[in-house]
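> Could you send the DUF4468 domain-containing protein prediction when you get a chance?

Sure thing. Input:
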Amino acid sequence: MPKLILFVLLFTAFFQGQAQLSKRETIVYIDKKMKEAEGHYRYLEHDSKNVKMVFSNHAFGVSSGKEAIVVVNYTRKPDDSELESDDSKYSFNPAYISSIVPVKSSSDPVGILFIYLTGKVGIRSVRYSGGEVVNESTDTIRVPFLQADATNFNKLKNAFEHLKKIYKAEMDADPFAN
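Output:
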């Protein structure tokens, strides 16, 4: 009986340790999962026709100089010369995540994970191939992911929810928050 109790305790400790990645490990994991979509496409409706948009330059990390902010970057390049390519950058604090939902397409390899925030606490910057940059406050973060792997949405959702808990705990630890 004591061996059984010891086995159960060790088994439980092992699996609890596996699920508790650090902030850095979680960020590296999300970055790796985003990069899986590089070179793949998603169709975008534009002027009553579908345009194939190829995704590249994926990156996820901490904003330089702002540890409380994470950044999602990616480029969409059209197969059609009528549209400009764009570089999207989203900056936000994961503590403000309210929900995460997929926007899937039955035929495209790339899906978009929509992260809804508690208000317009995120920043979206888009640079078009013509050089114009548009900055705006946003309550929605768009993250491309390889939906061809049916498990990727849940993996990314779990990783972002874990990151939310880490950032929320850091905010709650602020001695001047109350």
